[in-house]
Structures are given as C-alpha cells and as structure tokens.
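=== RUN LOG ===
request id: a7f3
mode: sequence -> structure
chains: 1
length: 118
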Amino acid sequence: MKLGMFLFCLVTLSVTGGALAGTGIHRGKVTSTLTQEGVFGNCMALITPSPSQTLPSCRAGWVTFSCSGDFNSKSAGQTKFSQAQLGLVTGNGVVVVIDDTKTHNGYCFANRIDVFFK
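=== RESULT ===
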C-alpha cells in the first residue's frame, strides 16, 4: 500500500509540476491600462499586487494580452484587454492566468482574465 501511495504522489507531482511550471493564477485589481503599437504586445494592464508575486520571473506590475497576435489571435487579445478595462472602470477584482514562458519585453502573457463583480 505504501508503494502504491508513493507512486501516486510521484506521478501527481511530476504531472502537475511540469504542467504548471510556467503558469500561475494571480488575483488583484487593474489600476492602469496601456496601448502602444510595436511594444508590450500592443496592450497591457497594470495589476496590483504585482503578478511577479505569483511568478517571480515576470517583470513587475504589468501583464500583456498580446493584442499584436503573437500568443493568441488579435481579437482574443483585444477581448482580454476589454475585460481588463472593465475591471479598471468598475474597480472590481480580477483573476489572471499568467504564463512566464510567453513574454513581451519581459512582461508575462495573460492567458485568461476574469472580472469579479461585487
């Protein structure tokens, strides 16, 4: 029985460790947004507290939605950016799934953003 539990734990750790090595789930508030053609994936959001608290390899403060179309479609990037703007104007919290294997100018890519209403 002990060997079976050990193998189960070993397999579970190896599967989840590899799958989650470059991603993290981060909760915060959007405090600013920016758009600039040609850098940062064309659109970003400043999230407080910094996403680098969840993934230290991310540059502090900002996440990119890759509106440039490098890591998702341009449309998907714009939709996520719109969600960030919604979080900014309503003051509601957000949860972003960030990926430190995909970056623009060192800022981590947000695979997903959820806005939570009060």
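=== NOTES ===
The longest helix spans residues 2-20.
The beta strands are 23-35, 43-48, 62-64, 93-104, 107-115.
=== END ===
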